[in-house]
Write a structure and sequence with these properties.
Shape: elongated
CATH class: Mainly Beta
Distance between the termini: 98 Å
Strand content: 35-45%
Structural class: mainly beta
Number of helices: 1
CATH topology: Jelly Rolls
Length: 190
């Protein structure tokens, strides 16, 4: 019977050989990759479709992205003076950079299409106010001013609340259709 004995050095060398072979096999099967990602978020503002949670003496024809069609239900009372009206529009919005809020009135108020008043007892323009709450601030446009521009130094997201108030009273109105167009813009600062 023949018994073979290994010395301690031989066992260590055999273990090292086995382990080196395993490492070599592992290294040959393992690879690495380095990926670099790039992207660009274009600067801009997005305003979504408005809702009208509050209204008084108005009819809402249509609310869609970029527009709202609003008609005053009853413009004047029996004495031909303005009855007044209120509407609140709420628009979800996001601006991912410094931006500017611009608000303008095309006619400087509700302007009648009839003849200009002959005497000082009547009027053909009904001024009103537009209050805008956005990004923690409140801005008010009185339509005779026709425009308002407010810069915001940071990005902002949330709800833009626009309250349009047509006051009651004043001098009687000349007969005719009264119109105005207000434009609210959120855009790049500058």
């Amino acid at each position: 019977m023949h018994v073979r004995t290994l010395s301690a050095a031989g066992v260590v060398l055999a273990a090292l050989a086995l382990s080196a072979g395993a490492v070599a096999a592992q290294t040959a099967e393992t690879g690495a990759i380095q990926a670099t990602f790039r992207g660009n978020a274009p600067a801009g503002c997005l305003v979504s479709s408005p809702t009208a949670p509050t209204s008084e003496n108005v009819e809402i024809g249509a609310l869609s992205p970029g527009s709202a069609d609003i008609a005053i239900s009853q413009m004047v009372g029996d004495d031909a003076t303005a009855l007044g009206a209120t509407i609140v529009l709420v628009l979800p919005a996001v601006c991912n950079q410094a931006h500017t809020l611009n608000l303008s009135s095309l006619n400087g108020g509700l302007l009648g299409d009839g003849d200009a008043p002959i005497s000082g007892a009547f009027r053909s323009l009904v001024p009103y106010s537009v209050t805008v709450n956005w990004a923690g601030g409140e801005q008010v446009l009185l339509t005779p001013d026709q425009e308002l521009s407010v810069p915001f130094g940071d990005a902002a997201a949330g709800l833009v609340t626009v309250t349009i108030q047509i006051p009651p009273g004043g001098a009687p109105l000349v007969a005719g259709a009264y119109t105005d167009e207000i434009v609210l813009e959120l855009g790049a600062a500058g």
